[in-house]
Design a protein that fits this description.
Layout: E1 2-9, H1 13-24, E2 29-32, H2 57-69, E3 75-78, E4 82-88, E5 91-96, E6 100-108, E7 112-114, E8 130-131, H3 134-137, E9 145-149, H4 153-163, E10 168-172, H5 182-193, E11 197-200, E12 205-210, E13 214-223, E14 226-230, E15 233-236, E16 240-242, H6 245-250, E17 273-275, H7 287-314
Helix pairs in contact: 1-2, 1-7, 4-5
């Protein structure tokens, strides 16, 4: 079984950024990235990552990956999902789909998965009109009427991208007002003036219907006299669920939302276990913040290993 100083579970911004610093600390590192790049690669436009005025999420991921690969003598990248993490003597055992390794320390950078509406028709029409990624699928809806479900900054940005292809986009939100960043709100308002976007507030989608493909949805309240709303695309951007199951199984403490609790040095309650990125308990989650948390974790891991080495020498 191969042995590492640090095993990073997650190959998104946090995991790859951490791997660069882990190598700088001369730690033998493995990155497990079942979906290398994570959700950032689905982001159409990133304008708030220092050093890059504007680039796509996929381009940002590629730059981080290339930087990590520059340390190939110290960093192994394994495109497998991790099935289990176990505490063993002097470290941890990480079990992937095909690979099993030992590591002295572990960083959980497992991120999140997209929330589902959980309404009738959602599963049946997935990839047949229902989508969770405008960056991936908006080109397929050229000159079609679509709805974007959600009111966050992500929903606004996805709606704006979709409006570049669709005939019209209706942003459907369950509360009174959508809440994107100010710059994106201005962009939405500009698109509204052009007739490309319309906002339907205080409304929920209760059902998605169609035949071979989506033809309409059912709202919980009438819009222009009817609960039935004709559309050909339903894009869902209503938030995320943290991927903390492996950490919780190991005994890592989380909050009521399942988010991992860390201190200012990215340490969890278990010595040798760290966390960073969207999986941790933080209200404001950004790629640059996750990278910083991952970097802090590598410094903590390095110090932990040095302290353990001193203890072992005394023994």
């Amino acid at each position: 079984m191969k042995e590492y100083d640090l095993a990073i579970i997650g190959g998104g911004c946090t995991g790859l950024g951490a791997a660069v610093y882990s190598a700088r600390f001369n730690m033998k590192t493995i990155v497990f990235g079942g979906r290398l790049g994570g959700l950032i690669q689905d982001t159409h436009l990133v304008e708030n990552y220092p050093g890059f005025v504007r680039l796509t999420g996929y381009e940002l991921f590629q730059k981080l990956l290339k930087h990590t690969q520059d340390y190939k003598d110290l960093v192994d990248i394994n495109e497998e999902f991790v099935k289990d993490v176990k505490k063993i003597k002097n470290g941890f055992e990480i079990i992937g789909d095909k690979t099993k390794v030992k590591a002295k320390t572990v960083l959980f950078a497992t991120g999140t998965r997209r929330k589902k509406l959980d309404v009738p028709g959602e599963k049946e029409f997935a990839n047949r009109g229902v989508s969770y990624c405008a960056t991936c699928d908006s080109v397929l809806f050229k000159n079609k009427t679509c709805i974007m479900v959600g009111g966050s900054d992500s929903a606004a940005k996805e709606g704006l991208l979709l409006s570049e292809h669709a005939k019209k986009v209706y942003i459907v939100y369950r509360k009174e007002k959508i809440h994107p960043e100010p710059i994106n709100m201005k962009r939405v308002e500009a698109a509204m003036k052009k007739g490309k976007i319309e906002i339907i507030n205080n409304t929920n989608v209760k059902e998605i219907k169609g035949d071979k493909f989506v033809t309409h949805v059912i709202f919980d309240k009438p819009y222009k006299g009817s609960k039935e709303f004709k559309c050909e695309g339903v894009f869902i951007e209503i938030g995320h669920i943290v991927e903390s199951e492996l950490a919780k199984k190991l005994g890592v403490k989380t909050n009521s939302e399942g988010e991992i609790l860390i201190d200012s040095d990215s340490k969890t309650n278990i010595p040798g276990i760290y966390a960073g990125g969207d999986v941790i308990a933080r209200d404001w989650k950004q790629a640059i913040v996750g990278v910083a948390e991952g970097v802090l974790a590598t410094n903590s891991a390095y110090n932990y290993i040095q302290e353990e080495n001193v203890k072992n020498e005394k023994d």
